[in-house]
Design goal:
about 90 residues, 3-stranded antiparallel beta sheet, globular
């Protein structure tokens, strides 16, 4: 998701209002931070099936939140492999 028009693939502040994609080891989630002028602030939720090839046709519930006040970002994932959560603190 982006706040900018046109979208520039994460090159500018506002291009990554909310991002989520599958990497080689899990789901990468993130946003951007105006206070520190960081274009991308992100973390990864490990996904056990990512390296086994069992990613197609799998239902995965994800929850992502960001607290400006506490400068933390949290991601939660629930899948057939179980539940996993990560927290990225002190985003500066």
């Amino acid at each position: 998701m982006t706040q900018n028009n046109p979208f520039t693939a994460g090159a500018n502040l506002g291009d990554r209002t909310l991002l989520l994609w599958m990497s080689g080891t899990g789901y990468v989630y993130g946003t951007y931070d105006l206070a520190t002028n960081k274009v991308s602030v992100s973390s990864t939720i490990p996904y056990p099936y990512a390296t086994s090839g069992l990613t197609e046709g799998m239902w995965v519930y994800t929850y992502i939140c960001y607290s400006v006040k506490q400068l933390t970002m949290m991601g939660y994932l629930k899948s057939p492999a179980g539940s996993v959560s990560t927290t990225l603190t002190s985003i500066q």
